[in-house]
Amino acid sequence: MSQPIDSEEATIDFDVPAKDRPRHIAIIMDGNGRWAERRGVTRIEGHRAGTQAARAAIRTCGQLGIEALTLYSFSTENWSRSAEEVAALMALVVELLPGEHDEMMEKGVRFRAIGDRTGLPNEVESALHHAERITQDNDRLHLTIAMNYGSRQEIVQAARALATQAAAGDLDPSNIDETLFAEALWTDGLPDPDLLIRTGGDYRVSNFLLWQISYAEIHVDTRFWPDFDQTAMLEAIREYARRHRRFGARPGK
Ligand code: IPE
Ligand code: IPE
Ligand code: MG
Q1: 64 within some domain
Q2: Domain count, the chain
Q3: Which of 2, 41, 193, 230 is buried most, with the most CB atoms less than 10 Å from its CB?
Q4: What is the distance between the alpha carbons of residues 230 and 16, in angstroms, rounded to a whole number?
Q5: CATH label of the domain that carries residue 112
């Protein structure tokens, strides 16, 4: 069995062949607060540590040739946290994202953000927009950050957009099918996630990609997000590769 090595190398040796790896991995990065509590530091320190785990996950996906990685960074429900915590989460994006531009260009990372962009502070929106513009021609790893994201809101805005077109006479309602509906979602252009990872041990989806994960394999890891390292990611992919996806068909057919 080949040994995974944590390094800056462009690729890593991994015993799961490329054809058996997920094309798209989506992650609910949960547990920053509990990680911090365990260490007796502030929740905000936990979020900062979480950004390092996110960098490591992005790098590993790049090394493995994964096509798409979607990270749940801030949900529409997370506004109900303390003003201090919300402000710190927003500030981390503004502080850290510009420093990633060079590495994203070097590694061919195409950056995008999904969520209700109009609800974000201006400086956050402009940091996201800047990273999207700079990386728009990259095509190796499609990295999507879900920021002020809620899946129900995404579905509602898609329904509203299609209804608006229909009311204007530009769309025949009988032409609305799964493909057209998916194109109205913020994730338009991305394949559906094959693997959904949730760290922190909870078995729930917390309003994340409800439409898109219809047939995703779910992997719950009990580690808190800042502890989710390359070994943990490789383990999740290895477990995914062992599963038999049936898509509703009978086994063996
Ligand atoms: C996930 O960690 C990060 C965000 C939701 C922004 P949490 O902050 O939810 O950490 P726990 O679940 O309280 O440990
Ligand atoms: C989900 O974590 C949202 C993100 C990771 C951004 P939460 O901590 O907000 O979810 P719940 O409260 O456990 O459902
Ligand atoms: Mg949480």
Answers
A1: yes
A2: 1
A3: 193
A4: 14
A5: 3.40.1180.10
Instruction: State the residue range of the domain holding 33.
Output: 21-150+193-242
How many Å apart are CA 195 and CA 178, to the nearest integer? 21
Q: Which ligand is nearest to the CA of 148?
A: 2
Report the nearest-CA residue for atom 8 of ligand 2. 30
Task: Catalytic residue, from 13, 32, 78, 137: name it.
Answer: 78
The sign one gets for the Cα dihedral 8, 28, 112, 235 is positive
Q: What pLDDT does 248 receive?
A: 87
Catalytic residue among 30, 148, 194, 221: 30
Q: Pocket residues for ligand 1 (CB within 6 Å)?
A: 29-34, 74, 78, 89, 200
Look up residue 175 and give its amino acid: N
- Give the contacts of 46 (CB within 8 A, at least 6 positions apart): 32, 33, 34, 35, 36, 37, 224, 226
Residue 114 lies in a domain: yes
Q: Is residue 222 part of a domain?
A: yes
User: Any catalytic annotation for residue 30?
Assistant: yes
**Residues 44-103 pLDDT 10s:** 999 999 999 999 999 999 999 999 999 999 999 999 999 999 999 999 999 999 999 999
In a domain, 249, yes or no: no
Question: Which residue among 30, 90, 204 has the greatest number of ligand 1 atoms within 8 angstroms of its CB, and so is best to mutate?
Answer: 30
Annotated active-site residue 221? The verdict is no
